[in-house]
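Continuing the batch. This is chain 6 of the set; chains 1 through 5 are on the previous pages. Same settings as before, nothing changed between runs. Recording input and output for traceability.
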Amino acid sequence: MTEQNPIEIDVAGVKKKLDAGDDFLFIDCREQTEYDSVRIEGATLLPMSELQDRVGELEPHKSREIIIHCHHGGRSLRVAMWLRQQGYETAASMAGGIDAWAVEIEPGMARY
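Output for chain 6:
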């Protein structure tokens, strides 16, 4: 884990990247029911429970930055660490998850 590729990024950092139109893959690793109730615009659903079977879908994005989020940041951190073990060196977790996003970035967003 280098300083250049920290394993976590805060919600403000992700918002800044989205606003700037930065080229990165934004993954929501929560389950479908969570995604259906509330989501961050621009995030692609890839549930942690399906990741091992679907990791091949990420192959075209291997050279891109990948940011993963979940509800509070625990699952996404595990996913980021696992992806790094698979050779995705820039995989990072959005610290605090969608819950922190709802508090800091989009007040009024549904929380659960």
